[in-house]
Design goal:
By secondary structure, the chain is an alpha/beta fold. It folds into 2 domains: about 190 residues, 3-Layer(aba) Sandwich (Rossmann fold); about 80 residues, no CATH class. It is about 30% helix and about 15% strand. The chain has 9 helices and 10 strands. A hairpin with a 2-residue loop joins strand 7 and strand 8. The longest helix has 19 residues. The relative contact order is 0.15.
């Protein structure tokens, strides 16, 4: 007796489907654009994106460089991981420095403890222009933020690098229009349909390496604005704040003075997957000080050219 196609068991894992679609997007953009670049923060999403890019073009080397926008306020563990990951995959690393933008007078210096996250936009747009990049792959996901949920897979930016959600191209039936007009560039988001749980399940399946701050460890922290901030060069305790030694981990990676830790004993990939499966707050909403105080913070920055 033959089995109907409709009755045949589905042997394709949902992670396989997500992986296949992401690889398809990576290849489509490279086929359409002349000078793509992969934006890499050293966080879990950009690590997955780099992993997928390596798979997409194996056994050849990556056909584009990896670019990090360095605010100067990164966790040292993340910078160490960035350098190791790029070296492991034999990729070319481009580092664009926010400090250079400050020194050139293009953005105002917020001071040694001031936030630099929003200043990245100028540095990013300058780096795209200087290097002639016409496409930039990013690891953003739609479940992270309301503004990111408005993104297309291919998000077009005008001649000034700005984003207008009303001017994006339709993407019906996963058909993408990758032609870039003169003066424009696009941002491509192959992980758009992934969730935080998908990311962690994929990392566990692929046994990927990550910065150690994603795993439970002891750290000196202070409680500020409802977040546990790691005490260090960019976070100094105020007179009213008490330093505590707690077991924490980070769900997301950003500037050290804006990224909060969560109390957690999850020290393995499987434990993190279990923890995230029960979470009811997004990682950015819970632990990113640059987002949590304004519902429009991310959209405002994206309109300016932020990734």
């Amino acid at each position: 007796m033959t089995t109907s196609i409709l009755q045949a068991p589905d042997m394709t894992d949902h992670l396989d489907l997500l992986e296949s679609h992401a690889i398809f997007i990576l290849r489509e953009v490279v086929a359409e654009c002349e000078r793509p670049v992969l934006l890499f923060s050293g966080g879990k999403d950009s690590a997955v994106l780099l992993h997928l890019a390596v798979k997409a073009f194996a056994p050849q080397a990556l056909p584009f460089p990896v670019m990090h926008i360095d605010t100067g306020q990164n966790f040292p563990e993340v910078l160490e991981f960035r350098d190791q990951a790029v070296a492991r995959h034999g990729a070319r690393l481009v580092v664009a420095s926010v400090q250079d933008s400050i020194d050139q007078g293009k953005v105002a210096d917020p001071g040694p403890m001031g936030p630099r996250n929003r200043l990245q936009t100028v540095t990013l747009l300058d780096a795209i222009t200087e290097n002639g990049f016409d496409a930039a792959f990013g690891g953003a996901r739609r479940d992270e933020d309301k503004a990111r949920a408005k993104e297309r897979i291919l998000s077009f930016r005008d001649a000034f690098g700005q984003w207008d959600p009303r001017q994006q191209r339709p993407e019906l039936w996963q058909l993408y229009q990758g032609k870039v007009n003169a003066g424009e560039h696009l941002r491509a988001f192959p992980l758009s349909d992934w969730t935080e749980l998908d990311i962690w399940q994929y990392i566990e399946r692929e046994q990927m390496e990550l910065p150690q701050i994603y795993f439970a460890h002891e750290r000196d922290v202070i409680l500020r604005d409802g977040m546990y901030l790691a005490v260090g060069p960019f976070v100094e305790p105020r007179p009213s704040e008490t330093v505590e030694r707690l077991v924490v981990r980070f769900r997301t990676v950003g500037d050290a003075n804006l990224t909060g830790a969560v109390l957690s004993s999850a020290a393995t990939l499987s434990a993190i997957v279990d923890e995230i499966s029960l979470a009811n707050v997004s990682e950015r909403g819970a632990t990113r000080g640059d987002d949590k105080f304004s519902e429009t913070a991310m959209e405002d920055r994206k309109r300016e050219g932020y990734f």
